[in-house]
Amino acid sequence: MFRYSAGAGSILLLARRTDVRRISLDTPDYTDVVLPLRSVRHAIAIDYDPVDGHIYWTDDEVRAIRRAYMDGSGELVSRFANLWFKDSYSAL
Q1: pLDDT tens-place string over residues 25-57
Q2: pLDDT > 90: percent of the chain
C-alpha cells in the first residue's frame, strides 16, 4: 500500500494480486477504482514516484518490475529479475 496526496485529495494505492487499485481517502465510503493496467498478473508490492508520476509494481508471476502512469499509459517492463521477490519490495 502507498498513500500520497494528489492535489487537494489523498489516495491510497493498493496492489491486490490481480489488479492495482486507487482508493480515495476523501470520500466517506473510500471508493476504490481499478487502475487500467493491462499486464498485472500477480502484483505483490507497489510504489509511486512523485517526480515523474509513475507507479511501479513487482509482478511475482512474470518476475518483473513494471511501471506505468496512473491512467494506464506508458506501461512497460522496467526490469526483469531472475530472483524471487519479497512481499515488501519497494521499487524506488
Answers
A1: 888 888 889 999 988 999 988 998 888 889 999
A2: 25
- Distance in Å from the first CA to the final CA of the chain: 14
- Angular region, 73: left φ>0, alpha ψ -120 to 50, beta rest: beta
Sign of the torsion formed by the C-alpha atoms of 41, 44, 49 and 50: positive
Q: What is the CATH number of domain 2-80?
A: 2.40.10
Q: Which three cell numbers stand for residue 87?
A: 512481499
Contact of 48 with 11, CB cutoff 8 Å: no
Strands (E) in the chain, as ranges, are: 2-6, 9-15, 20-24, 32-34, 43-49, 54-59, 64-69, 76-80
CB 50 within 8 A of CB 56: no
